[in-house]
Design brief:
This protein has two domains: 315 residues, no CATH class; 97 residues, no CATH class. With 439 residues, it is α+β, with helices and mostly antiparallel strands. 52% of the residues lie in helices and 8% in strands.
């Protein structure tokens, strides 16, 4: 197969080494920022209980504040080790495990770029990104090599392309295409920005941004792959993500995607750019082919099949995924909705006939309450928490109901779940079947 032959061809390590450095340093800085912002307390330590991901209920934070800070600090250290290429194999595996553990502790803090970082960290566990331009290669002569198999760069390019492409596909929705939502809402809050702020009061600007974002996401991976269009594509990456960083509070995502575009730049292009600043790059050509085992091919085939399946699985249901959020996570639904809600809970003790109200603010942090109010599986989890709480107090025949209203993309608030639905009588996955229609 031509593809297999291409995958095992040796190619210069420079693009992979540069991406390793930028990714490692960026993640180290991001984790230090996480600690300095006080988010270790807010995410891991302050909550009375944690919203967990399905099948990962067993993942809980460490008991002590010192332990959580040490873990985040150690994760930052291993990210730095990835950047400098020191004990790379140990560092990449350790970073992947630690970062993913931290990510899975609290569902209300889910962000697309956290998920993306875990995926990239997982892929870096397999690629020989430390064979040159690293401390490992400097100190271990037998490790040193100027080439790596092409597949080690290809899988990173493919993963980044999947993110962009499906981020574009998910924008093919009526709100985005016909109403320029939610950008119409968000941009109107930015009219006070100098120079460009006055443009955001016009609906036309929101439509221009909506369609520009759609076209960008769908085309940019193909433009980055193509040698002729790559310089213009990289400029587009810089402009697009700099604008999103300026206008929207989406954390590290723009910088992570800018870093990702570096993997598409070839060694010849890096060599040309470095010569402009009087840095000469020694290129060593190696004709020896590198074998790739059938198991490796099968493994990555399964892995990337999963990466394609996850973003499309919500299409198996005839519903508005923005409203129900069934399979919404891990699908590259980026910046698609402005959503908020309000949910109160009623507890009924069938044994005594008593009933009373429970208000989420009494048990949840602000971000937990906000996210729970419009995400059905989190509403179910909170009801489960309340049930277990009162069972410990001796209430054995508990029923829990919610009065929940949600607004999506500026439309009027509507009832989200039936008021007579006993949340303790259904399984987590079944909650989606009871969501009331938005219209």
């Amino acid at each position: 197969m031509k593809l297999v032959k291409r995958l095992i061809q040796p190619t210069h390590i420079l693009p992979l080494a540069i991406y390793r450095m930028v990714f490692g340093f960026l993640m180290a800085g991001s984790l230090v920022r996480f600690m300095l912002k006080g988010w270790v307390e807010a995410c891991f330590l302050e909550p009375e209980f944690h919203f967990t991901y399905q099948y990962f209920d067993w993942i809980q934070p460490l008991d002590s504040s010192l332990g959580m800070y040490a873990l985040v600090g150690l994760c930052a250290f291993f990210a730095l080790c990835i950047g400098v290429g020191f004990i790379y194999r140990i560092a990449s595996v350790s970073f992947f495990i630690m970062f993913t553990y931290l990510e899975l502790i609290e569902q209300s803090w889910y962000l697309n770029h956290y998920y993306f970082v875990s995926i990239v960290a997982f892929l870096l566990c397999f690629v020989p990104a430390n064979k040159n331009y690293s401390l490992d290669a400097k100190w271990i002569v037998s490790l040193r090599s100027s080439t790596v198999p092409f597949w080690s760069i290809f899988i990173l390019k493919l993963q980044i392309s999947i993110v962009y492409f499906f981020a574009g596909i998910t924008k093919l929705k009526p709100d985005w295409l016909l109403e320029a939502l939610p950008l119409k809402i968000w941009l109107q809050t930015k009219t006070d920005l100098p120079l460009i702020g006055s443009l955001f009061q016009y609906e036309t600007t929101a439509y221009i941004f909506s369609y520009s974002g759609l076209i960008y996401d769908l085309l940019i991976p193909f433009l980055l792959w193509n040698k002729r269009t790559r310089p213009f594509a990289f400029i587009a990456v810089l402009i697009f993500h700099s604008m999103t960083a300026l206008l929207f509070n989406i954390g590290m995502f723009p910088w992570i995607m800018i870093a990702g575009s570096l993997i598409f730049i070839t060694t010849d292009e890096w060599s040309w750019a470095l010569k402009k600043i009087n840095v000469k790059l020694k290129i060593t050509s190696v004709k020896k082919k590198i074998k790739i085992k059938n198991f490796g091919l099968f493994f990555f085939l399964v892995f990337f099949s999963l990466q394609v399946y996850l973003p499309i699985r919500h299409n198996f249901y005839s519903e508005n995924v923005l409203w129900t959020e069934r399979n919404y996570r891990f699908s590259w639904n980026v910046m698609l909705m402005e959503k908020s809600g309000h949910a109160d809970f009623t507890i009924k003790d069938r044994s005594t006939g008593k009933q009373w109200k429970e208000y989420p603010k009494d048990h949840l942090t602000n971000i937990q309450e906000k996210q729970m109010s419009f995400q059905p599986d989190m509403i179910w989890q909170y009801a489960k928490f309340l049930k277990e709480k009162y069972q410990k107090l001796g209430c054995r025949n508990i029923e829990i109901f919610t009065d929940a209203y949600v607004t999506l993309n500026g439309r009027p608030s509507r009832q989200f779940l039936p008021k007579d639905l006993n949340l303790t009588s259904i399984e987590r996955d079944k909650i989606y079947n009871f969501i009331l229609r938005e219209k």
